[in-house]
Amino acid sequence: MEHGSYADNNNATFSLTDEDHTLANAVRFSLNQDPRVSFSGYSIPHPSDNRVNIRVQTTGAPAREVLKDACQDLMMMCQHVRSTLDVAVADFKLRNPPKKDEDTDMK
Amino acid sequence: MAKKDQRMSETETEEEETEAESMSESESGSEEQKQESKGGGIDYIMSLPDVPRNLPPHVELQRTRVFANIDAPTHTDSIQYSGAFVSVGLDNSFRLDQFRNNFRVEVIRFSDDGMDMEFDMIGIDPALANAFRRILIAEVPTMAIEKVFIANNTSLIQDEVLAHRLGLIPISIDPRLFEYAENNAPNERNTIVFKLHVQCAKDVEEEKGQSKKKEKEKEKKVPPRITVKAKDLKWLPKGSEFYLESEDSNSNSTSKLKTYTSFTCSQDSLPEFSNNKIGFKEPLDDINIARLGPGQVVLLEEIEDEDAETLKKKCPVGVFDIEDIANGRKRLTVAQPRACTLCRECIRGGEEWEKRVSLRRVKDHFIFTIESTGALPPEVLFTEAVKILESKCERVISELS
């Protein structure tokens, strides 16, 4: 799934099957925020193919590692989003308890 | 309603304050820094008074706001590149702790049945917010009717149309309790079976044969009809009752005829289903909208008296309100910025208005509205969506290593 040259592992294109804009755009965002990346972008070669190509060019680090770190960053962000939402929802429900629940408690 | 408005105006003022703070920080902050670090190195350089710690206010504004001008919106892109502000000496690279500090979720409302919710996500890039939205729409699993076996359909609706309609019915079952069927044989862990057996009652009477007199009477009446609703579908916990082959009268075998499903036990007896009711909700669409944050209407100068009245009338959604100030004068205030649809009606009157009112939208503020079909509460749907994105990342990582 990785297409690059053996001599130069700073630049590579990764071809991910069964993925679309959802992941590719998010990964591109997180790649672009990495200072080691000199260029990153993605394309969907054909709309009826279920694949995206993600291009990563770095200033020296191996592209494979940089992409891995980008995914790692995304995962950490997701985890934080999840926990923050859980807290916010629990807070909201504590502040405004639903009326229906009280009724069922009585029964 | 009044409470809600009050809350909103509070959050708005909060934002305004932080904005003002961040702009004044560049002056007050540098002095503190001087005293903090007297040692050499990068810390010392960063503490020098002429090294900017924040972006200049106008660039900061362009970075965080979309401007809705009369001709077109400007500064619509989010700046992602880590080196975007190198020339001003600022690092734009991603730092998790920074994200953690800025990210905020505010729940705005829950519907009474807990199946609709609206919340704000603040401090997140559109790339991620859009990924969540796309996954919610297309990738969070739900249960739906996939295969329909029709034995005797004498209704006006053709078989294929009926099958398609059945497939649209939202079924309120927690899909996490099931496995994907894919090409496996249907069993109690990946399939639920419903039976639809309805008959138009008056037709039955006719079939039984009645005197011609009665038939003539009936002709005058409205033809009999029956409305079939989702509740007419009966859940079959023991699996399908519909034989795949017709009974062979010649064969002597006593073996059970094959049905579509191969349930080894009744789903009733499985602990996870005894607690979870299987049924239908009022048909609701699963709508997930991620809307770019509330409009921000900024009055560039104070608008008073008659101008205030005209501007208040101009806005079709009632963003503005009028405040009485001293000496019987009136002043325009932005009462409900959240209602603003960026219709730009308020700046349409010519350049004079454009100079006085600025319509903006915060780039990293998203309003999510999630309406669940009833199978799972919306907050669970959202966490499922986030988990799916995580598993996608995990897949990439594992394939690379």
Automatic annotation (TrEMBL), chain A:
It is found in: Nucleus. Residues 12-83 form the DNA-directed RNA polymerase RBP11-like dimerisation domain. The keyword Translocase does not apply. CDD domains: RNAP_I_III_AC19. Pfam families: RNA_pol_L_2 (PF13656). GO terms for biological process: transcription by RNA polymerase III; transcription elongation by RNA polymerase I. InterPro entries: RBP11-like, RBP11-like_dimer, RNA_pol_Rpb11_13-16kDa_CS, RNAP_AC19, Rpo11-like. GO terms for molecular function: DNA binding; DNA-directed RNA polymerase activity; protein dimerization activity. Belongs to the archaeal Rpo11/eukaryotic RPB11/RPC19 RNA polymerase subunit family. This is DNA-directed RNA polymerases I and III subunit RPAC2. It comes from Quercus suber.
Automatic annotation (TrEMBL), chain B:
CDD domains: RNAP_I_II_AC40 (cd07032). Residues 1-43 are annotated as: Disordered. SUPFAM superfamilies: Insert subdomain of RNA polymerase alpha subunit (SSF56553), RBP11-like subunits of RNA polymerase (SSF55257). GO terms for biological process: DNA-templated transcription. One of its GO terms (molecular function) is protein dimerization activity. Residues 116-399 form the DNA-directed RNA polymerase RpoA/D/Rpb3-type domain. Residues 11-30 have a biased composition (Acidic residues). SMART domains: RPOLD. It comes from the Eukaryota. GO terms for cellular component: RNA polymerase I complex; RNA polymerase III complex. Keywords: DNA-directed RNA polymerase, Transcription. The keyword Transcription applies. Pfam families: RNA_pol_L. Residues 1-10 have a biased composition (Basic and acidic residues). This is Dna-directed rna polymerases i and iii subunit rpac1.
